[in-house]
Amino acid sequence: MLITPVLLIITLLVALLKKIPVYDSFIEGIKEAFNLVISLLPYLAAILISIELMRASGLSQMLGRAVSPVFKVMGIPPQLCELLILRPLSGSGSLSLLEKIYADYGVDSYIGRCASVIMGSSDTIFYIVAVYFSTSKDKKSGLAIPISVFASLMGAIASCALCRII
Amino acid sequence: MLVSIYLISVNSPEKVMGAVLDGANGGLALSVKLFGVYALWLSILKIMEKAELDKALAKKLKKPIQYLFKDESPQTYKYLSLNLSANMLGMGGAATPMGIKSIESMKHHKNKVMLAVINSTSIQIIPATIVALRASYNSASDIIIPSLIATFFTTFIGVLLVKALVK
User: Fold this and answer.
1) Which residues in chain B are closer than 8 Å to A134, comparing Cβ atoms?
2) Which range in A93-102, B67-76, B85-94 is most confidently predicted, on average pLDDT?
3) I want to staple B158 with a disulfide (CB 3.0 to 4.6 A). Which of A24, B112, B121, B167 is the partner?
4) Where are the domains of chain B?
5) Touching B: A residues 11-40, CB under 8 Å
């Protein structure tokens, strides 16, 4: 996308116009980024280890098979179950699954379009909540995960319905 | 977590070590990747802060943000406006550090949950990665409009639930 380079150029131009020390600002920013990444690392490693274990053990596929009758009632095709389960857990994992769906069912098929809309309208809930609350003083995320999961599920139902009409 | 360890030990114990190492390595690799992204975005944020560009941006999002997040400091509102606008443009890399900074400076639990829910229900206007991937498969159909409706719908439900359920 073009947004990133355009934003960079605008920022640098504004910095020049307003006579802001660009280099010093970058050094300050990088220092902050370093500290941020160090504090995030243990959380990232823990999340990714559990996701790898879930995939390798076949638990995510099993869960997919178990919940597919429920999804069917809600109008979600069973081929999308694994994607729905993996999507809130792993961005790269669900993206590789999406690619597999394109290859298997075709990008313009109903399944392919549903999968795209679901991917485009949801996010990695568990990752985002874990990362955001990792630096907050009270570590309790409370209802954040249940609400996000519920809203995303409603969104998935809506996506599948929308793809039938549009 | 326990269930998956049990399953893998029964089915294919030789995979346990590999999966754990893959996960840990992935964590480190992701941190390195994130360092690059954060270094760039936090530097841009520094320049924007000094140029007071963000204040102009924050003004536009001020009303809806103050409605969604009650009673926080001006500093928090500034980070929030940057987090949400970055999110809308699909700059996930810019959104995350801003989101972390706003949650760090927040006073109320309800607002923290609100931020996490808005971020994790995706308010992206154009799903750039998906559009690019579809193009590489020579897609003829368009998914931007249904995605936009679905995104709006999920975030709306999330916001309603936080308003109704979280104290």
Assistant:
1) 100
2) B67-76
3) B121
4) 1-51, 52-167
5) 11-12, 14-15, 18, 20, 22, 25-26, 28-30, 32-34, 36-37, 40
Q: Do B113 and A18 touch (CB under 8 A)?
A: no
DSSP letter (8 states) at residue A75: T
ipTM, two decimals:
0.71
B92 has pLDDT over 60: yes
A46: which chain B residues are within 8 Å (Cβ-Cβ)? 27
The residue length of chain B stands at: 167
AA identity, residue B145: I
> B135 pLDDT exceeds 60?
yes
- Phi, psi (5° rounding) for residue B98? -65, -40
Interface test with B, best of A86, A147, A152, A154 (most B CBs within 10 A): A147
Predicted local confidence at residue B19, as pLDDT: 80
Higher-confidence residue: B126 or B107?
B107
Confidence of residue B57 (pLDDT cuts 50, 70, 90): low
Residues of A in contact with B79 (CB under 8 A): none
Q: Is A89 part of the contact surface with chain B (CB cutoff 8 Å)?
A: no
Residue A40, burial from CB neighbour count under 10 angstroms (0-12, 13-18, 19+) = buried
What are the tens digits of pLDDT across the range A103-116?
889 999 999 999 99
Average pLDDT over residues B14-28: 80
Average pLDDT, rounded, for chain A: 84
The per-residue DSSP string of B6-60 comes to HHHHHH-TTHHHHHHHHHHHHHHHHHHHHHHHHHHHHHHHHHHHHHTHHHHHHHH
Considering only CA atoms, which of A51, A84, A81 is closest in space to residue A64? A81
Residues in chain B with CB shorter than 8 Å from the CB of A138 are 109, 112
